[in-house]
Every structure is written in C-alpha cells, then in structure tokens.
Amino acid sequence: MINWGRVEELKEEVGAEAFGEVIELFLEEVDEATNRIAETKDRSTLPDDLHFLKGAAMNLGFAEFAAICAEYERTAKTDGNDAPDIGLLVTCYAESKSIFMDQISGLNAA
Question: Does pLDDT of 93 surpass 90?
C-alpha cells in the first residue's frame, strides 16, 4: 500500500529537517481535496482533483491510492457518465494515511 522506498527518497530530497513539515503540508492538501471530492456532487473539477491527488500520492509513496486516482482520472476524462467509486477512494486514502502515520515516526527518528 505504501512505497517506503519513495518515502525515503522524499526524505532525502527535502532533508530530514524539513521532512515532517513537507509531510504535514502534503497530508493537509490531500485531506482537503479528498474531502472536497467526497462532499460535492459537482464533478466538473473531478479530473483535476484526481490528477492532483495522484501526484501527491505518488510523492508520498501512497502507491495503491495513486493507482486508484490514476484509474479514476482516466475514466473521468474519457467517460463522464461512469462515476468513480468515491467511497473506495476515500477508504483507500484513510487506510494509507493510517498505515503511513503509524510507521512514519520511525523514519522521522532515523
């Protein structure tokens, strides 16, 4: 579910000192976008929101969540009538975030 190699790369890219702040900012932005998708019936911005989420998820190492976002983004761009399973998207993000937060303290200490 989490690509820990990517998480380590991100830590190296931003530096150990800034790592916690970067993670906090990413998660805050992903939380906002995920909540917006879950709470709105307006799907006009869905492809853009999914594209953003896909990129953020890839940066954070949320591999499964990124794959779902990529699939839904393709579907939203090619067939607006085929609504994505928003519940699955939200659940996958919540599970990914939970696993990530449980394990990240060890990476922050290293």
Answer: yes
- Distance, C-alpha 81 to centroid of its chain: 24
For residue range 25-72, list pLDDT tens digits in order.
999 999 999 999 999 888 888 899 999 999 999 999 999 999 999 999
**Complete DSSP assignment for 18-49:** HHHHHHHHHHHHHHHHHHHHHH----TTHHHH
Which residues, 6 or more positions from 22, have their beta carbon under 8 angstroms from its beta carbon? 10, 14
Q: What is the DSSP letter of 82?
A: S
Assigned token pair, 27: 């998660």
Q: In terms of residues, how long is the chain?
A: 110
Q: What angle do CA 83, 88, 92 make, to 5 degrees?
A: 140
